[in-house]
Specification:
CATH superfamily: NAD(P)-binding Rossmann-like Domain
Structural class: alpha/beta
Bound molecules: NADP nicotinamide-adenine-dinucleotide phosphate
Strand order of the largest sheet: 3-2-1-4-5-8-9-10
Order of helices and strands: EHEHEHEHHEEEHEHEHEH
CATH class: Alpha Beta
CATH topology: Rossmann fold
Strand content: 15-25%
Oligomer: single chain
Length: 215
């Protein structure tokens, strides 16, 4: 069992945190302002730690970025390169913005948030995954019937193997886990946010996922 530092304390951090605790991991939430955090009660009730960003990263075997996409570089910078060195960073973030009143995917310099993080922290091992679905589906794939897919992007095969094991512990099967290549491929899954938003509006619910069918 590992100590897992979740950077960001919003909806996804709570969903992932609750599942990780259920699986026996130690969970520490990293906040910009742990003293005045609205999740203090939640953390105490679930047996999760709640600290600053640097402390959460320093004590973690594995780090998860659950900050908003465009805030992620700032959040990881506050967590500290020395606290991220050599560690797997699971990046579940997406970047979103409104352009002329229309929702758009926001990525740094036409690339992806995952690439930005990997490039800013070259000694960390960024794996983009789980960002193409709602939080509750991330940790409970069985709630969506039939075949559906979770993508993996990252440059470090050992890091992706480690994340694969974690995904399996959430209930994902080998046939559902699709490694699409290096961290550059996160551009594709981050862009899928736009499709997610329109599907959400179509269904009126986040209880769905994308499925890749292959001959
Ligand atoms: N919600 C979903 O189902 C879902 C699905 C797929 C991917 N994602 C992605 O996962 C990430 C987290 O989603 P979420 O729904 O958990 O978001 P959220 O509820 O808004 O939580 C994000 C957390 O990040 C921290 N944060 C750090 N810098 C921030 C800033 N500049 N502005 C706002 N918050 C900041 C905050 O924690 P502190 O205040 O404690 O620092 C905040 O609670 C996002 O990148 C999102 O696109 C979400």
């Amino acid at each position: 069992m590992s100590t897992i530092g979740l950077l960001g304390t919003g909806n996804v951090a709570k969903v992932l945190g609750a599942k990780l605790i259920l699986l026996g991991h130690e969970v520490v939430l990293g906040s910009r302002d742990p003293e005045n955090s609205p999740v203090a009660e939640w953390a105490a009730g679930h047996g999760a730690g709640l600290t600053g960003l640097a402390e959460a990263a320093a004590g973690a075997d594995l780090v998860v970025n659950t900050a908003p996409g465009l805030a992620s570089l700032d959040v990881l910078t506050k967590a500290g390169a020395e606290n991220l060195r050599g560690k797997v960073i699971i990046d579940v973030s997406n970047g979103i913005e409104s352009r002329n009143g229309v929702t758009a995917v926001a990525t740094p310099d036409g690339g992806s948030i995952a690439e930005q993080l990997q490039s800013a922290f070259p000694e960390a091992r960024v794996v983009k995954t789980l960002n193409t679905m709602a939080g509750q589906v991330m940790v409970d794939p069985g709630r969506i019937p039939g075949h559906h897919t979770v993508f993996l992007s990252g440059d470090d095969p050992a890091a992706k193997a480690e994340v694969t094991e974690l995904l399996k512990s959430f209930g994902w099967s080998d046939t559902q886990i699709l490694d699409i290549g290096g961290v550059v491929t996160a551009r594709a899954t981050e862009a899928a946010l736009l499709l997610f938003i329109h599907l959400f509006n179509t269904f009126g619910s986040p209880e769905f996922n994308l499925s890749v069918a292959k001959a």
